[in-house]
Amino acid sequence: MPDQPSTVANLQGLAKMSENPVCQRWIPSRIRELKAYQVASAQDLIKLDAMENPYVWDEGLRDAWVERLAGVPLNRYPDPAAETLINTLTRCFSVPDKAALLLGNGSDELIQMVALAVGGPGRVMLAPEPSFSMYQVIAKITGCDYVDVPRHSDFTVDGDALLGAIDQHDPCCVFLACPNNPTGNSCDSALIEKVARASSGIVLVDEAYHAFCGESFMDRVGTLDNVLVMRTFSKLGLAALRLGFLAGPKALVDEINKVRLPYNISTLAQITAGFALEHLNWFEDKAQAICHARESLHKALDAMPGVTAYPSKANFVLFRLPPAKGNLVFESLRQSGVLVKNLHGAHDALSDCLRVTVSTASQNRVFLDTLTASLNDGV
Questions:
Q1: Which residue ranges make up each domain of the chain?
Q2: Is the peptide bond before 182 cis (omega within 30 degrees of 0)?
Q3: Is 97 helix (H, G, I), strand (E, B) or coil?
Q4: CB-CB contact of 230 with 221 (8 Å)
Q5: Better-scored residue on pLDDT, 27 or 18
Q6: What CA–CA distance (Å, rounded) separates 32 from 167?
Q7: In CATH, which of 2.40.50.140, 3.90.1150.10, 3.30.565.10, 3.60.15.10 is domain 41-53+282-376?
Q8: Which of 186, 216, 363 is nearest to 289 (CA)?
Q9: Helix runs in 203-279, H state only
């Protein structure tokens, strides 16, 4: 089978880099060995691969938002501390008084800040895997060793294995996604506390999918010296905003803040987030609609012969196809106009797995009908 265009481009890029003496001498091998983050083209496709919220503001809300933005002084730098927005976030999400907040350009930047603050060569970061790919990427960028702690076969966290790895490696940071991407399952709060007490380093509880879960560790933020809770606006329906926040003990947050670049949150993002929080009920209603649709989607997938759908507390469903069918079905769906996430090859535990974002009733129906047709055609 000939190389795909993206593969050829990657090989050509590596060849050019290897010919450049600056790259050879000054770019560390840990960077040269990485691959740039790739986003699949979704042109003319129903886009169900990136956990985006399918709902957009109605005309009235959009007009009020645009009017708010019209008064922004674009010639001035943003409030570097985003004080007004932080106060609003603290109130809206019931952040404990003893906790401090830090904002990031999406949760990715917050993970990077944590890694820059505590990571470095000779140090270890770890997570139950499979999990969010950027944990490992950012760990490697900062020179850390990354330890993949296997989950149980149903993707629940293996608490004994996790605690054993912490005891063995003494990590500077443990990542716990609750719920987890790409598997959809959450993590028991009692286990989070055990992990925190067993760890000398940071325990970063990633609640990116909190809106669809109904569980949170936020009320305990500040009671443990090493726990940070992180959330993002992306899954709520503001992915274009690129805004996340983490909450944790003030002394710890203050240290992490030292590696934050100045003015990292634009005035437009601060104003838009503040406006959105005035209408938080709208987002919460849409999250509930997604949760209802998720249950129907999971049930329909799990009823298909040969398909295993894993329980999810996020806005997506992970499902496994029969052996050697994952790539074939993914390509069949794409050719039929539906883009999902192909996870086959991303991790040994994800063989023949695809992940579909929960969308509107009509798009969910198109996906299910297209998948059924692919399976019936013997793909």
A1: 1-36, 41-53+282-376, 76-278
A2: yes
A3: coil
A4: no
A5: 27
A6: 31
A7: 3.90.1150.10
A8: 363
A9: 250-257, 267-278
Cα–Cα distance measured from residue 130 to residue 346, given in angstroms and rounded to the nearest whole number: 8
- pLDDT of 59 above 90: yes
Let me know if 246 is exposed, middle or buried by CB neighbors in 10 A (0-12, 13-18, 19+): buried
Backbone torsion region of residue 82, taken as left when φ is above 0, otherwise alpha when ψ lies between -120 and 50, otherwise beta:
left
Spatial distance between the Cα atoms of 66 and 50, rounded to a whole number of angstroms: 26
Per DSSP, what are the bridge partners of residue 320? Answer: 308, 353
Percent of the chain surpassing pLDDT 90: 90
The CATH code belonging to domain 76-278 is 3.40.640.10
pLDDT computed for residue 37 by the predictor: 82
Q: Is the pTM of this model over 0.90?
A: yes
179 cis-preceded (ω within 30 degrees of 0)? yes
Please tell me whether residue 261 adopts helix, strand or coil conformation.
coil
Q: Which residues of 45-72 are buried (b: 16+ CB within 10 A; e: fewer)?
A: bbbbbbbbbbbebeeeeeeebeeeeeee
- What are 356-372's pLDDT values in tens digits? 999 999 999 999 999 99
As beta bridge partners, residue 355 has 318, 341
Tell me the C-alpha distance between 279 and 201, whole Å. Answer: 37
Conformational region of residue 122, where left means phi above 0, alpha means psi within -120 to 50, and beta covers everything else: left
pLDDT on residue 355: 98
Beta strand pairing status for 173-177 and 124-129?
parallel
Note the pLDDT tens digit of each residue in 317-352.
999 999 999 999 999 999 999 999 999 999 999 999
pLDDT digits (tens, 9 = 90+) for 163-199: 999 999 999 999 999 999 999 999 999 999 999 999 9
Is residue 65 a contact partner of residue 57, using CB atoms and an 8 Å limit?
Answer: yes
* Segment 258-316, tens digit of pLDDT: 999 999 999 999 999 999 999 999 999 999 999 999 999 999 999 999 999 999 999 99
